[in-house]
Amino acid sequence: ARLCRAGWLITLVISDVLGDPLDVIGSGPTVPDASTPADALAVLERYQASEAGIPARVFEVLRTQRGPPEPIRSRLEHLIIGNNALAVDAAAREAVRRGYQPVATSARRLEGEAEEIGRALAAQALAMRGGGPNGLVSGGEPVVRLVPPQRRGKGGRNQQLVLAAMLEVERACQLGAERPWPPLVLLSGGTDGEDGPTDAAGAVADALVYERVRQLGLDAADHLSRNDAYPLFDAAGGLIKTGPTHTNVCDVRVALWGGGSSN
Questions:
Q1: The sheet that has 135-140: what strands, in order across it?
Q2: Residues 201, 241: contact at Cβ < 8 Å?
Q3: Strands (E), 107-201
Q4: 3-class secondary-structure state, position 139
Q5: Which helix (H) or strand (E) holds 125?
Q6: pTM of this prediction?
Q7: pLDDT recorded at residue 262
Q8: Is the pLDDT of residue 263 over 70?
Q9: Dihedrals phi, psi of 207, to nearest 5 degrees
């Protein structure tokens, strides 16, 4: 921003960070930096960076840079043209077009673990059985607590989330041979078409996928405990594969009643 000699600098922003903090998205190259060399020095000293091999010259430079930075002389304007909230809104409008009555919500800050979010998604969806809204569209970006490498399988945060949601539906509805999966579809996917170190964007759970898991005798709880959702959904036909979209605005999750087909 300081290098711009124009009188007006407009930045079009696609946000891959929840809450859209302009100084964090893409490292904020056109956003004034409010931090100081003293702030950076304090962080390095707090974590004893000198003992971790950070060169002494780094500390010397930070200690000598005391003056204020050169002012930004251009007028700055930032326009967010894509973010998680817009993706959620677009998905919700498409659900309405298809005859659903969805509730839409987008996270504004960091979420919890994928398994917790998955169980919450299932619980919220099951609470809609009595009428009223018959769909839920939400967005965010949870994290996954990884097991040790020797136990770790293959998967991603969205696949982990959907597997946890599927198990929660099974538990809450006491599913079995005499009690089939309800007419409910659950899915979660990364908007960039990628989910962890896999070729899938995420996964979907519905009657067809759940029944296939049962027919194959797959232990869903074991796969969940090993961060190994990909092989399970691959075998059951529940993977979502879009290919890379090259646009990341975090994740979108959908729950719909009255579906029953992963198509």
A1: 102-106, 135-140, 251-257, 184-190, 202-205, 239-240
A2: yes
A3: 135-140, 184-190
A4: strand
A5: helix 114-126
A6: 0.88
A7: 40
A8: no
A9: -60, -40
